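Working notes for the structural subgroup meeting. M.R. asked for a predicted model of this chain before we commit to crystallization trials. I am recording the input and output together here so anyone reviewing the notebook later can reproduce the run.

Input as submitted:
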Amino acid sequence: MQKVFREIKKQPYIHRTHSLNFSAHIHEDIELVFVRRGGGIAYCDGKKYTLRENSFFMVFPNQVHRYEECDSGEYILFILKPTMLLSYRNVFLEGLPASAEWSLNDAKNDNLVYLLETVVYEYNRDGYSPIISAYLTAIFGKLLKVYEIQKSNVSGNTVLQILEYCSEHYKENISVGEIAQKLHISCSCVSHIFSSRLAMNFCDYINSLRLADAVQLLKSGNYSVTEVSNLSGFSTLRTFNRAFLKKYGVPPSKYGK
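Returned structure, recorded in token form:
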């Protein structure tokens, strides 16, 4: 399971989905979610947002973001490179939104829902095309008029290095000190990045990666709880049970039953 999304997309990713429960990640693309139905919780650079029906959640390049409790609604997800929106490329590369969330109402609709649904329909029918590109430019043009964009001097390179290191070593007994040593930065810098950019501490983040693997292993039905604990990187079965119960509300032995 890939923990840090950094793939280079030549075409936009447009998808209607019922689940957005992705752990913290960072990439060089624009990510936009429209909540068609339901809601959930989202984090962007350490800020918590409550997503409601007809709200947008827009993430600029190199912002750390994740989703929680977004598994019982309907969401339209867009992931695309800033270069696909030539008219607004510099806005996304040089600025950041004051808030990642914006709610739509009838007075502000401005045909946005129609444009979103048309893009999804055209994309599913014919794939990416100049028509899709034109619709995307219109959608983001309308959104940038209502989002407050501020000048940015934030570099996501250190954050990306930390998350990539965690994604490669989370099954091992890694620590803040090890990451700091490997990346030649201070322990306080690593801890600050987790608290300010991810809104969670280091141990909780590592456990979230391990638990994501554990859930997939449990769903397969091929492993015992003890085997799942070992394969997903937990040091003891007790630690695994405690972390699993805290996140999912049931012990791993009862998950899925």
